[in-house]
Amino acid sequence: MKVAVIGGGAAGFFAALNVAEHYPEATVVLYEKSDKVLSKVRISGGGRCNVTHDEREPRKLAKHYPRGGAFLRKAFKHFAVSDTIAWFEAHGVLLKVEGDGRMFPTTDDSETIAQALLRTAIDRGIRVELRSPVSAIQPVDGGYLLSIHGKDVRADRVIITAGGHPKPEAYRWLADLGHRIESPVPSLFTFNIPGDPIRELMGVVLQGRVRIAGEDLESTGPVLITHWGLSGPAVLRLSAWGARILHAKGYGFTVQVNWLQGRSEDDLRATFAAEADQLDRKMAANADPFQLPKRFWEFQLRKAGIDPERVWGTVAKKERNRLIDLLTNDRFEVQGKTTFKEEFVTAGGVALSEVDPDTMQSMRCPGLYFAGEVLDIDGITGGFNFQAAWTTGYIAGQLRS
Questions:
Q1: In what order do the strands lie in the sheet with 143-148?
Q2: In a shared domain, residues 238 and 285
Q3: In this structure, are 194 and 329 located in the same domain?
Q4: Residue 264's CB: how many other CB atoms inside 10 A?
Q5: 41-44: long-range pairs with CB below 8 Å, 24+
């Protein structure tokens, strides 16, 4: 049996490795269109590779996927986080858990993950063909013909792990096989707020709550101020859950930020009142009862029209109310987005209604399987997209019908 795997990313390698494990007599060839493999693995997590997330309960794990959660809940019964950890440990890679649940190799080096996959591929006799783009697939005599550089290559089984792509035309070869394609749009991106003075605070991180004005979309967690706008886990999660809505808006919208994790105006007033004896004699620059970063606090004072060197007790109620409003409901006009650390993630791809979650086999083309981002699956940041790649790749590699 000859098995062709199309795409040399995480899902592609994991699928190929599992074909070789379950069918040791099979010929497994992995076709990659570029001149290198495992590119996302190498750049993930700032070069450390966020392998997965320490959420061991499949039902809870599935809730971290804006698209594909119900599909993955079934798939996770076959291969989930504990299985990922065990697989890498069995191949000489120990993983560690960070405070937010993200898991990395103990080496803090993504090359550790890449080399484990490459080494195992060599050991199992998997052939990797670089610069080999597949432009078309044609069913023939119980198998498939792949068109590569104008030449036909025969395969008995095909696993497609071609990744996500921002342009619908990139999926045409799959649509030609009869598959429905959910229109691709970007996910996991940061918000650009050109010209806004808050960009002067680049590098400042606060625990906030971020909302999209006029939409039922909000996210709580770290918010990072950058030289182009807003980033951090709270913003990235919001971009994932709102991927299609924000695309429809042309990435022009109002974002509302509560810089104190959702605390109410009344709560802030009560805090100021309770600490009035201590605060009223201080300069406004030192009268912060919330322990916010000093640069940020002074910036918000000025934005509210309060001189940081003014005595807090002389600040009028109207000015305090303006400050409280800025701390609980700051507003910014977003105009555009920026891809997060080159880790492009796509919402969209092959419709999940046409793929069996227990086998990853196409319901339209027997012997054809899918894994990874080519499917209409995407997770929030934190290792969830890689876990989806390991899970779907593992299942596809079993070549079950």
A1: 134-140, 143-148, 151-155
A2: yes
A3: yes
A4: 12
A5: 41/9, 41/10, 41/110, 41/113, 41/114, 41/117, 41/386, 42/110, 42/111, 42/114, 43/110, 43/341, 43/342, 43/343, 44/110, 44/343, 44/386
> For 36-93, how does the pLDDT look when each residue is reduced to its tens digit (9 = 90+)?
999 999 998 889 999 999 999 999 999 999 999 999 999 999 999 999 999 999 999 9
In three-state secondary structure terms, 165 is coil
For residue 322, give its domain range.
189-339
| Residues 62, 175 within the same domain | yes
HSE on the CB side for 347, CA within 13 Å? 22
342: pLDDT strictly greater than 70: no
Q: Please name which of 2, 7, 26 lies closest in space to residue 144, comparing C-alpha atoms.
A: 2
Q: How far apart are CA 364 and CA 93, in angstroms?
A: 38
H/E stretch holding 332: strand 330-335
Do both 49 and 138 map to the same domain? yes
Q: What is the pLDDT of residues 275-290, one digit of tens each?
A: 999 999 999 999 999 9
Half-sphere exposure of 334 (CA within 13 A, CB side): 28
Q: Which residues of 214-241 are buried (b: 16+ CB within 10 A; e: fewer)?
A: eeebbbbbebbbbebbbbbbbbbbbbbb
Q: Which of 136-140, 163-167, 259-263, 358-362 has the lowest mean pLDDT?
A: 163-167
Task: Work out how many domains the chain is built from and give that number.
Answer: 2
The pTM assigned to this predicted structure is 0.91
pLDDT of residue 132: 98
Q: What is the dihedral of CA 245, 264, 296, 242, to 10 degrees?
A: -10
Nearest to 353 by CA among 370, 338, 328: 370
DSSP sequence for 363-399: SSSTTEEE-GGGBS-B--TTTHHHHHHHHHHHHHTT-
Structure token digits, residue 387? 């876990």
